[in-house]
Amino acid sequence: MTNHQSELHIIIDWECYYTKPEFELELTESSTLKMIEMIQFNIKKEQSKPSFSKIISFAKKHNIKNLNDFNVFIISDESPQYYYRETHSGDHKVNVNIYDLKTTLIRLMLNDLKLSCTKNVTNTKEYMELFGIYHKYYKIKNFSSLKEVFDELNKSSYLEWLVMRDFEDMPYNINIDKNLCVKLLVNNYFLVKSILGATSATDNMFDHGGTGIRNYVNINNQKILFDFRTHELNEVDHYYYCTPIFQKMLNTRIWHPNGFYIPNKEMHLHTLIYNSIIHEQHISAKNEKIFKRYGINPSKINKIDLKIILHEWMRKDFYCYCDPEPPESF
Questions:
Q1: Architecture field, domain 146-329
Q2: What pLDDT, in 10s, does the model give residues 240-271?
Q3: pTM
Q4: First CA to last CA across the chain, in angstroms?
Q5: In the chain, fewer beta carbons within 10 Å around the N or the C end?
């Protein structure tokens, strides 16, 4: 097992208030934050670069009207934690170790300090691209196979994950193409995204406060769709299954002999029934075969009888139904 949990983040000091030693001193009280590098951006030098207009627009979004030289601090967070905070763009889930450091420093200076910070790893990559330092810190990940993806997930001691369904032929006997979408349930959205080097497949991404949890992972030089669902309370997944169902799926997951995790029989059967009844218009032939394999009488494989089976299970464990998922979640 390895520590895949660490994340890179950025804090921007718009007025060069801190020197590198001074900022490092501010980090000494934190057991998780470590300084990697300080980069000073000279405005006269930046003006000649094609990206300068984007930097000006970026600064204006952060209420910086007169842009002068500024410092960018690259920070490693060895134990990231994500909770909701009120940001300038609304209530978002953010890395609180970074965000709370920024707000504390501003408060100590009686709000007379202009700092900005990244909220998550997607933010960090966007900032690094803007400042022309992305390739110094990140390499595009490209896996040779789905098996290699699963092996990479298994290396992390912090990640809990499973393939929710459609795993019967994984990872060897499955076509890696644009029609594939691997549906993962995880305990940490941003961690799995960081481990796999994933990029959002929708503009309405969860990373920026939206509902989209669909991402691309590079496999054999192709962009393959993955859903990263999470059991964490108050996230977008309350549209899919209720939180206790997600938690039970992760807590009772089992090991597949092909090297990945799947739901146990009870959770797989009933969440598949839920999917067939609530999320899909028709019961697929593939799901019919699975229901038969799990012992459901063929005469009962219809929406009316399956709903009775589902309702009894939901009522027994006090689960609740959720609203159908909005299209923009994909």
A1: 2-Layer Sandwich (3.30)
A2: 899 999 999 999 999 999 999 999 999 999 99
A3: 0.84
A4: 32
A5: N
